[in-house]
Amino acid sequence: MHPLGLYISVPFCRSKCTYCNFASGVFPATYMERYVHRLTEDLEAARAFTSAKILDSIYLGGGTPSLLPPHLFRKLFIAIRQCFEISPGAEITMECAPGQLADDALEAMVECGANRISFGVQSFIDQEARATGRLHTRAIALHDIDRVRQAGIAAINVDLIAGLPHQTEASWRESLDVLTETGVNHASVYLLEVDGDSRLGKEVLNGGARYFASAIPSDDLMADMYLMAVERLAASGLRQYEISNFARAGAESAHNQKYWLRRPYLGLGVDAHSMLRAADGTAIRFATTDNLEDYLQSPGWDDRHALSRQEELEEAWFLGLRLNAGVSLKVLEAEFGAEAIAGFRPTLNVLAEEGFVQQSGETIQLTPQGRLLSNNVFERFLLPAAAA
Ligand code: SF4
Hints:
3-stranded antiparallel β-sheet; 9-stranded mixed β-sheet
């Protein structure tokens, strides 16, 4: 039985970034106390229905977990340790917004066992960060990276977004260069998502000038920025191991790899997703509401459903292909049977002809072009019987 990963969402932010489509927001500070109390109740409840009792990764995401007051970090980790055993080498990550990590919060994180910090920097260019509502400057972000190191945490991730308003090829190169000069051992690079769930996305779709939608780089430039990131980060030792993730050897995120390798994880808090394995190995997925008020009053998880074999196989393809290591046909055949895998051969052949996947030996991988258009590629795995 695999140990469990634990994800805890902390949906509190000091201000709402214009591009953000997460279930996070600015709420009264009094909600934090109620929220952490609610999390401790869910931990108790989860202990009853999870067979795995050992955690080998914990990830506090958000939102902005670094805004939690120190006593709430301690309360949360006391509850985690009462309900689960944390394995000695467990990876414990906390997401932080630069400029929003008080000394006492950092101290509490270290005391609770945090050994990895993820900074939502998004851009090291002050004008770009300011235009999206971020509250930090480059100097603040660099200072916070130093403070975390001085506190004894060496594993640090920096998030960047390609496609922010005002970004140019030159400014993107500068952000990448500043990132690599910090010497952090992990980077995540995302392409700006345009959808109606963020203020910037709405402005792109419906027009307006408040959030600088007209200053968003073109799709072609965004694609070039992504490819530039892959190249420049690799040149500095941060090799791509997943569509959006780059690491020095051995510094890959243990927690996030569980999602792509379909290992069990439990999600607590607002808009948290879980995947556990039943005694017979069947994947059970469930989630929580994305509304904070509802979460504070609801009895916990809903939408619990067991995946069919077909759904599991589709997931094995599109989650596994996210990893640069790709998907092993032998491993898939051992899990799902040779006939089921053969059903995808026409899809794979067409995708290979189009230049989106490649096969070497028994391994199927996305090509760089496939990574760039990965969502279009993954859709093709949902209908294996149809022509791709
Ligand atoms: S991007 Fe992060 S910090 Fe900004 S509003 Fe969203 S969750 Fe909060």
